[in-house]
UniProtKB/TrEMBL annotation:
Protein's recorded name: ABC transporter ATP-binding protein
Keywords in alphabetical order: ATP-binding, Nucleotide-binding, Transport
GO terms under cellular component: membrane
Matches recorded under SUPFAM superfamilies: P-loop containing nucleoside triphosphate hydrolases
Molecular functions per Gene Ontology: ABC-type transporter activity; ATP binding; ATP hydrolysis activity
Transmembrane segments: none
Cited Gene3D superfamilies: P-loop containing nucleotide triphosphate hydrolases (3.40.50.300)
ABC transporter domain mapped to chain residues: 28-257
UniProt similarity note: Belongs to the ABC transporter superfamily.
Length: 410
């Protein structure tokens, strides 16, 4: 009997190692076979050219929960999915899956390309543990959901990638599995079908445990109520605080090394740093919403008699989308150049960026010709603190005033 808080996925001490070299891997396999070792070498030990794809992963997923699995490429997400789906065995630990499992972990996975879409529906349903009678009751709903009725009796090998995704998700969703594993494959579909899928996920979630893998943090925020962050096979974060897990994920992208894409040799940025910006930390500047940021600049002019430049600061959100730029700074012409050094401060008050991590590109142009002479990408990073997590990049301050309807005498 189903219970709302029933644990459907339980992962305990899960570890998996691989070998970087195929020939060495085959040799280790032969050694393990003849020496009777359980899983290659002594427990917990790596041999030459081996590495941990996953190491000591632990989590539980209950009915009604959607776990967002995030991490860089090579973090171990695909390995974890293949273990959960029974495609490969772990070297250490245990995985317990309770109920019927539907999986969309690879485009077209589970489909026989020479069979028709209709025949593949029956095959996939049988793999999920459904009888032919149960599939007959669902097949029309599956075909309608997939929106490929006119092609349903055509071999799947002739389907486009979008058609395969639609059919795969339709089978997984309409057969109502207890556990649903969804990889990045939904990104292949068109926007209309993606929205349809997310609505279906919302409807399924109360009775299903969902593992959702994506590089799109807005989708993770929209769909998931738990998050697991992997980094080189290690569990970096697991919990219900989606925003905190995403912040840790984005911080791993930050690179403090200078990345110049334009340098005409006219000037050099000797220093660019935040000053008096909330709480100062060695690796991060934090400022509260509606606070102010002040940035100190020190420029060295390498060419004599250079006109004072035009400075542009371009702000990027955590998805690296440009979201703001400071206004034109014509007042720089009033600054004083001393010994080829120009020092000044840029202040922005009452910042209304939403909670999250932001970066700044510095672009410098000739003031009158607008010719770029220097650009530094990801020059500065800062974090805005706020009590709520929202995805839009701005939280706009507003006042809510009572509206009084005045009645006029007739």
């Amino acid at each position: 009997m189903e219970t709302k808080n029933e644990i459907l996925v339980e992962v305990e001490g899960l570890s998996k190692k691989f070998c970087k070299d195929l020939r060495t891997s085959l040799w280790y396999g032969v050694q393990d076979l003849f020496k009777g070792w359980k899983t290659g070498g002594e427990s917990g030990q790596l041999r030459d050219k081996e590495f941990w794809a996953l190491k000591d992963i632990n989590f539980k997923l209950r009915r009604g929960e959607c776990l967002g699995l995030i991490g860089h490429n090579g973090a171990g997400k695909s390995t974890l999915l293949k273990i959960l789906n029974g495609l490969i065995n772990p070297d250490e630990g245990k995985v317990t899956m309770r109920g019927k499992v539907g999986a969309l972990i690879e485009l077209g996975a589970g489909f026989n390309p020479i069979l028709t879409g209709r025949e593949n529906i029956y095959n996939n349903g049988a793999v999920l543990g459904f009888s032919r009678k149960e599939i007959n009751e669902k097949i029309e709903e599956i075909i309608d959901f997939a929106e490929i009725r006119e092609f349903i009796d055509m071999p799947v090998q002739n389907y486009s990638s979008g058609m395969r995704v639609r059919l795969g998700f339709a089978v997984a969703a309409q057969m109502e599995p207890d556990i649903l594993i969804i990889d990045e494959v939904l990104a292949v579909g068109d926007l209309g079908f993606m929205l349809k899928c997310y609505k279906a996920i919302d409807e399924m979630l109360p009775n299903t445990a969902i593992l959702f893998v994506s590089h799109s943090m807005p989708l993770v925020t929209r769909i998931c109520n738990k998050i697991l962050l992997l980094d080189h096979g290690i569990e970096k974060f697991f919990g219900e605080n989606i925003g905190e897990g995403i912040d840790i994920y984005y911080k791993s992208f930050l690179n403090n090394e200078e990345s110049k894409i334009v340098d005409e040799g006219i000037l050099e940025i000797l220093d660019a740093k935040f000053i008096d910006a909330g709480v100062n930390k060695a690796d991060n500047i934090q400022v509260h919403w509606m606070g102010s940021i002040s940035i100190y600049f020190k420029l060295l002019f390498k060419v004599k008699n250079t006109e004072l430049p035009l400075l542009r600061l371009i702000f990027y959100d955590k998805e690296q989308r440009p979201i703001a730029i400071i206004e034109e700074n014509l007042e720089m012409k009033n600054l004083t150049l001393k010994d080829d050094i120009l020092e000044f401060e840029v202040v922005h008050e009452q910042i209304q960026f939403s909670k999250g991590i932001y970066s700044i590109d510095i672009a410098i142009f000739k003031a009158f010709s607008n010719t770029p002479i220097y650009r530094l990408n990801n020059a500065l990073n800062f974090q805005v603190k706020h009590e709520v997590d929202v995805w839009p990049p701005f939280i706009l301050k507003a006042n809510f005033n009572e509206y009084i309807i005045k009645k006029t005498n007739e």
